Each structure stands twice: as C-alpha cells, then as structure tokens.
C-alpha cells in the first residue's frame, strides 16, 4: 500500500488527477450499487411506490453526486501551498477543481429536483383525480403543482448562487442571489418584473383555490377543464380538444364560472316549447319514466315545471342532476332527444302554432265611375 502511494506521488500531477477520477468513479459505482440494491429489495418486500420510484429515477443523479464529491475531495488534497500560504500548483489544477465543484453543484441540484419530483409523484399516486368525487384530490394536487414549481425555482437560484460564489469577479452577484433564495426573497426579486401580478395571483390561487386541477370552468364564454396551472398562466382543455391559455391574474381580477367549486354534482336543464293545448302532466310522467332508466342520472334531483309562456307557446323546463359536468351534459342531450321524438310521435298537433284569424272583407259588384268611362270591348260583354 505504501509502495502504491509513493508511486502515485511520483507520477505527474495530470496523471494523479486521472487516477483519482477513476478511483472516484469506482467507489461511486460500488456505493451506489450497494445502496440501491438495498433500496430495491426493500421496495420489493414492502411494495412501496416511493422506494421503487427512488430506485428508478434517482440512480444516475445520486451516482454523479457521489462521484463528483469524491473527485473534489481527492483533487483538493493535491493542492500544495508555500510557506506563506499561497498556492503552489500547476496553472490548470485550480480551474479543474472549479469545474469539478460546478459539476457537483449541478448534479446535487439534479438530485434534489429528482427527489422533489418523486415526492410529487408519490402524492399524485396516492390521490386519484379520476374519481368522480375528487374535490379533496384536486385541492391537494393544485397546491402540490404550484409548490413543486416554487421549490424548483429555489433549487435553481441556490445552485446558481453557489456556482457564482466560486468566482471572485461575480461573488457579489452570487451573495445577492443566495440572500434572496427564500420564497419571500424570490417574490421580492421578481417584484421588479412584469410578471409579479401573475406570480402573486399564483400564490392566491394555490392556497385560496378559486380554481383547482380538473375544475370545470366557463371563461369568456368557453367551457373547459383546468389541465395545468403554472406560475404565470392556466391551461384550459376545451371540449373540442383546443387549449385556452389564460393569465393567472384573470382568475383574481375577473369573474368566471366554476361548476365544480364545492362539488362535482351539477343540475342540467332542458327546455321544451309547446302549444297551450299540450298536456303537461303527460310530459311530466314520460320525462320521469325516461330519466329513471338512465344511468347518467344520480337520482338526486328531478323536476318538471312550466316556467314561462308567451303569446304563442308555453315553456316547460325539465331538470335532472348528474354526478359531474360531462354526465350532466350527456343526460340533458338524452332527455331532449327523447322528448322531442315522444312529442312528434304522440302529440304532433300540440307543437307550437301561430294562430291567424281570417275574416272576409266586404266586396261590391257595382262599377265605379272611372270604370264607366272605359270602352267596353265585344269580348268583355257577358
């Protein structure tokens, strides 16, 4: 062992650097393989989604953190100082150490981001947004999405600050970034920028939650579901697969409709326009019979009433509830189609009519004075 150490010390510095890189990679491989083998076995025994995600998604980042940590430690040990404390090394050693440290900071940031993403995926795995009664799930996932992005920004700023702190020329910039790395500091840092209104609106939306992921909204007359909430805008998925991009501050400053704010259940209405002679009770019985056969109806709300009338028609409103906006819409369509066909088949004479009263106008067969002056042709005589 002593011979090996002496041999390494006698080699040129660049060879020593390469040897320590190889040694660091070997040790990082051993440590990572052993640790992740333990994690894999534990995940298999406990059937843990989180441990399995750690094994699959963080292996590379963890390996490079260990590798660059060892490289920095080994290379720092190669630095030599003179009697006055000044470095006495080849010109390329310090820049290489700076590069290794920078790589360490970047790989550390990647590992932290992977951990944050794994934690977020674990929460998403636990809370299924596809359930019908998913109010609690949507609330949690909305906050999670916003917090995940804020943490990502914090990691980026802190990493950039540590990288800049290595260089004397930009150390003041790095110190300023590090000082403002907290969430409050981030808000202040962005305050001078145009997006401050959207950023603050994002905080309000994340915690007061006027909208959530998968909420059914009507914005500017368009119906859509909240597909994504970013730091500055919201993506709405329109029913025909279009996407509407809406700035966050619009949901704070302007009014909009949220059909799933407190519950996913909705009441749909269908309007029928018929003649005054139409038997309303017959339609009420038929509508109830039909709705009771529909799986789309959640058996909570149903009703039929004459809600309006005009000179020519009366308006009958049929209401029925569904578990969510999609089922309610389909239920409305089914009721409308069925009742139109039922009226056409059973009461075609009671469809809306326009009534006109025709009365004969008085006529005379006497010739007017002007007609008396006209010459009478032979063929005009009767």
UniProtKB/TrEMBL annotation:
It is found in: Membrane. The keyword Methyltransferase does not apply. One of its GO terms (cellular component) is membrane. Residues 195-261 form the Mechanosensitive ion channel MscS domain. The keyword Membrane applies. GO terms for molecular function: mechanosensitive monoatomic ion channel activity. The chain crosses the membrane at residues 13-38, 59-78, 98-116, 146-167, 173-192. Keywords: Membrane, Transmembrane, Transmembrane helix. Pfam families: MS_channel_2nd. This is Mechanosensitive ion channel. It comes from Neolewinella litorea.
